[in-house]
Design a protein that fits this description.
Length: 371
């Protein structure tokens, strides 16, 4: 059996924390080296990733020199070499996460020093989780800095502009002001949409995907205005619309060329209507087009899972994307495993399955799940 990857132990282990302490004492001779390490190691093994980062951050706040100007100067002196690559640069940089946290905790009243620290940290890791605190506390000044960084020569800094202001950034708190009105973000993304680095454009797409969850019409309108028929923009558009596509948003589908049609005959055939937990739901889909021209189709299926209270909860799964010819019939077979996961528990009883073509639901069938 393949061993499960333990990210917390790779990102924050005793070796790289000791290396951090070694680096600090090299430039700050009064550093209480043993106390710093003992404070962390006493609790480290029992904590998950984010709490490990918070523990190291707490120790930095306690043991770096005061005031903030001295403490941040120590951290800037021990920064590793800048990252040149924009893909696959591993987990070594995670040790900088608690250092960015230190800046947030101690540098809120020293805006310029803090922004400079974030700038330098980002060239080696990222400050996307921590600059959000400054968006809350120093909104105007932080947005001005982000606008300036849109033109920076470092792709990591340009990416920070987009990642740092994502309304729903994973592992971070939501920026509710941007969920209500994403206009200030869009002004920044406008400057980054044609960035030469996919790394940056991917962040732009992820930001738009965040925005689409609260303001779908704004995202569609923005992407329509951005269309320039390049492969880069086509990729960005599809990636930005992925949540709306999964939700069957007609405007999002139409923007990518997936038009709805009333000229389909659709049949789902289940290999069995009684299935035990752990088995596969096997089914075949037959789609016949009566259109006189080829049509791009995005084919999904929905499983309506029975919940503990007896109600049904729909979950959309991708099946296929293709072009169906005029008067063509296509067949697709699928095996979908019905097993419990950490994110889903199954309950016995009647479930439903339906097909979705370009956002339109076809041919719902029921099956019984036995647990």
């Amino acid at each position: 059996m393949k061993e499960k990857f333990d990210m917390k132990s790779v990102a924050f282990n005793k070796a790289n924390i000791t290396h951090l302490a070694d680096s600090i004492i090299d430039v700050y001779l009064e550093f209480e080296y043993d106390k710093f390490l003992n404070t962390i190691f006493l609790q480290l093994d029992s904590l998950e990733l984010k709490k490990r980062s918070n523990l190291i951050e707490d120790a930095l706040v306690s043991f770096l020199p005061k005031p903030f100007q001295r403490g941040v100067d120590v951290l800037l002196k021990i920064l590793p070499d800048e990252i040149i690559d924009t893909e696959n640069f591993g987990y070594d940089g995670f040790i900088l996460m608690p250092q960015a946290g230190y800046v947030t905790r101690c540098g809120m009243e020293n805006f310029e020093l803090s922004m400079n620290a974030f700038y330098e940290i980002t060239r080696r890791f990222t400050a996307e989780f921590h600059i959000r605190f400054f968006i809350l506390e120093h909104y105007e000044k932080t947005m001005q800095i982000l606008e300036k960084w849109c033109m920076d020569d470092c792709p990591h800094v340009r990416r920070l502009v987009s990642e740092g202001c994502r309304p729903r950034l994973p592992w971070a708190f939501a920026l509710n002001r941007f969920k209500k009105d994403p206009t200030p973000i869009l002004k920044l993304l406008e400057k980054l949409k044609n960035d030469p680095e996919l790394y940056v454009r991917r962040s732009v797409a992820n930001n738009l995907n965040d925005i689409s969850k609260d303001n779908p019409d704004v995202v569609i309108k923005t992407l329509i205005s951005w269309q320039d028929d390049t492969k880069e923009m086509r990729w960005l558009t599809k990636h930005a619309l992925r949540t709306l596509l999964k939700d069957g948003n007609v405007d999002a589908l139409s923007l990518l060329g997936y038009k709805q049609s009333d000229k389909f005959d659709v049949t789902i055939t289940l290999n069995a209507t009684k299935i035990y937990l752990g088995e596969n739901l096997d089914f075949n889909v037959e789609i016949s087009s009566k259109e006189v021209k080829p049509l791009k189709i995005m084919i999904d299926f929905i499983i309506y899972y029975k919940k503990a209270n007896g109600s049904l909860s729909p979950k959309v799964f991708k099946l296929s994307s293709k072009t169906i010819k005029a008067n063509e019939t296509i067949n697709i077979s699928k095996k979908h495993k019905l097993a419990n996961f950490s994110t889903r528990k199954h309950y016995k009883g009647e479930h439903n399955i339906a097909l979705v073509i370009n956002g339109k639901i076809y041919d719902k069938h029921s099956f019984e799940l036995k647990v």
